Amino acid sequence: MAKGHRLRTGRYSTEGQVYLVTAVCWQRRRLFTDFAHARAVVRAMRDVEPSAATLCFVVMPDHLHWLLQLKQGAELSATVRLMKVIATRRIRSENPGAMPVWQRGFYDRQLRQEDDLVAMARYVVANPLRAGLVRSVRNYGLWDAIWL
User: Fold this and answer.
1) Mind giving me the DSSP string for 55-79?
2) Are 32 and 61 in contact (CB under 8 A)?
3) CA-only gyration radius of the chain, Å
4) Which of 55, 97, 120, 122 qualifies as a FRET site for 21, CA 20 to 30 Å off?
5) How far apart, in whole angstroms, are the C-alpha atoms of residue 3 and residue 46?
6) Residue 25 in 3-state DSSP?
7) DSSP state, residue 124
8) pLDDT for 43-66, tens place per residue?
9) What is the rounded distance in angstroms from the CA atom of residue 114 to the CA atom of residue 103?
10) Structural domains in the chain?
11) Any idea of the CA torsion for 127, 131, 136, 142, to the nearest 10 degrees?
12) Which letter does DSSP use for residue 22 in this model?
């Protein structure tokens, strides 16, 4: 619990800023090997689009990487929290009484101007390759990216 609190220390939100967010499943369970659960997360990211534009994402078996840009008036912690709440409700609607879906908190990295968005998006999307889940990202159905 203390670790989750430290994750929030010093966090602030900047309108128009791009962030790479990593959210992890409770106890690193491989919850998202269930396609319906993974799609619930994808739909939840789409539902928070008034607050954040999704640039790219990949849903891994036990975590999510989400490259997003905050919109006017949005706050990073509130946006991620809302996405997690929406995804949890959808997953639990299929499995009432299930264990928690997410670990508390999340990791984020604010991209600087000199950071290359295309390279970061490629890094995010290539996660299933590096994890040995597929031989080509074309064979992994739980990612998406906009053209930058």
Assistant:
1) EEEEE-SSEEEEEEEE-TT--HHHH
2) yes
3) 15
4) 97
5) 29
6) strand
7) H
8) 999 999 999 999 999 999 999 999
9) 31
10) 2-145 (3.30.70.1290)
11) -50
12) E
**Sole residue written with tokens 């975590």:** 63
Q: Give me 82's structure tokens.
A: 């809302």
For the stretch 81-88, contacts whose Cβ atoms lie closer than 8 Å and that sit 24 or more positions apart, written own/partner, are: 82/47, 82/48, 82/51, 83/41, 83/44, 83/45, 83/47, 83/48, 84/23, 84/44, 86/43, 86/44, 86/47, 86/48, 87/40, 87/41, 87/43, 87/44
Residue reference for tokens 């889940």: 133
Mean pLDDT of 119-145: 94
What tokens does 5 get? 């609190």
Report how far residue 50's alpha carbon sits from residue 47's, in angstroms, rounded to the nearest whole number.
8
**Whether 112 contacts 28, CB under 8 Å:** no
Q: Which structure tokens are listed for 9?
A: 């220390």
